[in-house]
Amino acid sequence: MAAIDFSGTWRTTAARDDVWRVVADLTTWPQWWPAIDEVEMLAGTPEAPEAARFTFGTPIRPLRIEMAVSAATPGERLDVVTVDGPVRGTGRLDLQDEAAYTAVAFALRLDIRSRLFKPVERLLAGAARGDSQRLRKAGDDLSRLAGGEPGPHDV
After folding, report:
1. Domain hosting residue 35, numbered range
2. Number of domains in the chain
3. Shortest CA distance to 136 belongs to which of 20, 12, 40?
4. Range of weakest confidence among 115-124, 129-138, 143-152
5. CA torsion 64→145→41→10, rounded to 10°?
6. 3-class DSSP state for residue 105?
7. In a domain, 153, yes or no
8. Which tens digit of pLDDT belongs to each residue from 72-101?
């Protein structure tokens, strides 16, 4: 199975600290990431104290993935990794100050590991190749949830 890579940058007029509070709080993710229907916080481990089960809406059936924060530098960087589910992958969010915006660079790498979700792989690959409407909406919703207005996104 091939890896599916998503990357881009969202921009917002919200202050960096306000953006950080939103992205670092996994319970807010369904409010700004349109593909996520639900999040349930889980008990973490000493290596990854924050963990959650995310439910994604798909055309086939709900896709449930357990993810954990693998590294965090407050106000700067958040790394997540899947720990259970039919998808394996990693993700990274980097926050940076730009002239008029807070920039949130994102990079996700996913592998579908279950044959039941193999048809979803095509949808994800299409989104990674340029179907950016949902990614733009995520950036817009993240911006507003953090108290700002969306800037020019590169997705």
Report:
1. 4-145
2. 1
3. 12
4. 115-124
5. 50
6. strand
7. no
8. 999 999 999 998 877 789 999 999 999 999
- On whether residue 152 sits in a domain, the answer given is no
Sheet holding 102-112, edge to edge: 4-12, 102-112, 87-97, 77-84, 63-73, 50-56, 36-43
Query: What is the C-alpha to C-alpha distance for residues 22 and 123, in angstroms, rounded to an integer?
Result: 27
Q: What is the CATH number of the domain that holds 120?
A: 3.30.530.20
Distance CA 153, CA 134 (A): 12
Is residue 61 scored above 80 in pLDDT? no
- Here the contacts of 53-56 (C-beta below 8 Å, separation 24 or greater) are 54/29
Tokens standing for 102? 């807070």
pLDDT digits (tens, 9 = 90+) for 1-58: 556 788 999 999 999 999 999 999 999 999 998 888 999 999 866 666 788 999 987 7
Which pTM does this prediction carry? 0.86
* Residue 125 forms part of a structural domain: yes
Q: Are 39 and 29 in contact, with CB atoms under 8 Å apart?
A: yes
